[in-house]
Amino acid sequence: MTKRILVVEDNDLNRKLFCDVLRANGFEVEPVADGDKVLQTARDTSPDLIIMDIQLGGVSGVDLIEAAKRDRRLSAIPVLAVTAFAAKGDEERIRAAGAEGYLSKPVSIGPFMNAVKALV
């Protein structure tokens, strides 16, 4: 069965890149640009992985990760945080929120796909 990945990214170019790479690697993709729609879209589509941008307009990706991990329908879905936050302590803070994986931008395709495959 094809694995479904929810791609949460408010930057159009990054979202398209992530989705294109994932589709080229055989994944089904559900893109989301609006942070306010993330949790409901995840409930509606039951993805096998959530790729979460941390800096979203209007809502924090960290808050969304924490909310997903508190939701009994979403808590088991692994989260790969992809973020421009790369300061000391950021990875620990994001993992403490519940993210199973962490990549800092700019993202290279090889490490990105390795991280995705490790989580699905």
Automatic annotation (TrEMBL):
Record PTM 4-aspartylphosphate, positions in chain: 53
**By its UniProt entry, which PROSITE patterns does this protein fall under?**
RESPONSE_REGULATORY
User: What SUPFAM superfamilies does the annotation carry?
Assistant: CheY-like (SSF52172)
Tell me, which GO biological process terms does this entry list?
phosphorelay signal transduction system
Q: Where is the Response regulatory domain?
A: 4-120
Which Pfam family is one of this chain's hits? Answer: Response_reg
**Keywords, ordered alphabetically:** Phosphoprotein
Tell me which SMART domains the record gives: REC
PANTHER family listed in its UniProt record? RESPONSE REGULATORY DOMAIN-CONTAINING PROTEIN (PTHR44591:SF3), STRESS RESPONSE REGULATOR PROTEIN 1 (PTHR44591)
Protein's name in the database = Two-component system response regulator
Organism taxonomic ancestry: Bacteria, Pseudomonadati, Pseudomonadota, Alphaproteobacteria, Sphingomonadales
